[in-house]
Design brief:
The chain has a single domain, classed as Rossmann fold (3-Layer(aba) Sandwich), CATH 3.40.50. It has helices at about 15-30, 40-55, 70-80, 105-135, 145-150, 155-175, 200-205, 215-225, and strands at about 10, 30-35, 55-60, 85-90, 135-140, 180-185, 240. The protein is built from eight helices and seven strands, in the order βαβαβαβαβααβααβ. Bound molecules: NADP nicotinamide-adenine-dinucleotide phosphate.
Length: about 250
């Protein structure tokens, strides 16, 4: 019996980066991984193949999770195929970085629509099922930017801080039904999202462990929060995986 045997896990934005590592880790632990993506179908299929080649189970499902109808369609496919959802990882996210005075309303809105509204839409759709099951784990990927701010990321920081408030409120709403809701706040992790930073040396000064993190190091925290009994008694919390950047 593996740690997450027979669990069904939806990971949004799992074609690349942190989401990809989470989907693979949950599948290694025995979960059926639903690999959501927006446009990278070849990459998403490669994640599925990597999981199935290793003896696991996974499917790729395209959906723009900032759109309510697409979120509902995604969850309907999962229910038709697997009859349940045990784990939701709200990971899909984008950046549209620029300083406040140059920030266009459409770039503000695009980041809020996916990074915050997308978390709401997926959580609402999946929690209907989890409430009937009287069990579930919801894990939201936020960011140190939502805790400490970051110049050029007012849209992103606002969305990620919103995710933290959302996590705590929903954790209180769903606790009595056996559903836990937690957030993971990565620092700087090596993915496509951080590949074009023009000042990596400046950032390293603020990371006590002196290096960027790897997607697998975030996936390890998500595995912990999905597991029984390790995380059964934990809800409404934010866990930093940031090399020591934020010390509360
Ligand atoms: P990434 O490498 O850019 O990957 C983003 C993923 O999100 C891709 O799988 C992408 O799918 C998907 N996606 C984009 N728009 C979507 C949409 N509308 N609907 C569904 N999926 C969508 O990003 P990452 O670095 O792994 O970041 C993952 C999460 O961690 C994000 O929430 C990010 O804010 C957070 N985070 C990252 C860091 C970091 O340093 N990397 C730090 C803190 C927090 P396609 O491939 O189809 O585009």
């Amino acid at each position: 019996m593996t740690l997450l045997q027979n669990k069904v896990a939806i990971v949004t934005g799992a074609s690349r980066g942190i989401g990809r590592a989470i989907a693979i880790e949950l599948a290694i632990q025995g979960a059926i991984a639903v690999v959501n993506y927006a446009s990278s179908s070849t990459a998403a299929q490669a994640v599925v193949t990597e999981i199935t080649d290793a003896g696991g189970e996974a499917i790729a499902i395209q959906a723009d999770v900032s759109k309510g109808d697409q979120v509902d369609a995604l969850v309907n496919v999962v229910i038709e195929k697997f009859r349940r959802v045990d784990i939701l990882v709200n990971n899909a996210g984008i950046t549209r970085d620029t300083l406040l005075l140059r920030l266009k309303p459409e770039d503000w809105q695009a980041v809020i629509d996916l990074n915050l509204t997308g978390v709401f839409l997926c959580t609402r759709a999946v929690s209907k099922i989890m409430l009937k099951q009287r069990s579930g784990r919801i894990i939201n990927i936020t960011s140190v930017a939502g805790q400490m701010g970051n110049p050029g990321q007012s849209n992103y920081s606002a969305a990620k801080a919103g995710v933290i408030g959302f996590t705590k409120s929903v954790a209180k709403e769903l606790a009595s039904r056996g559903i836990t809701v937690n957030a993971v706040a990565p620092g700087f992790i090596t993915t496509d999202m951080t590949s074009d930073l023009n000042n990596p040396e400046d950032i390293l000064k603020y990371i006590p462990l002196g290096r960027f993190g790897q997607p697998e190091e975030v996936a390890g925290m998500v595995r912990f929060l999905a597991a029984d009994p390790a995380a059964t008694y934990i809800t409404g919390q934010v866990f930093n995986v940031d090399g020591g950047m934020v010390m509360a």
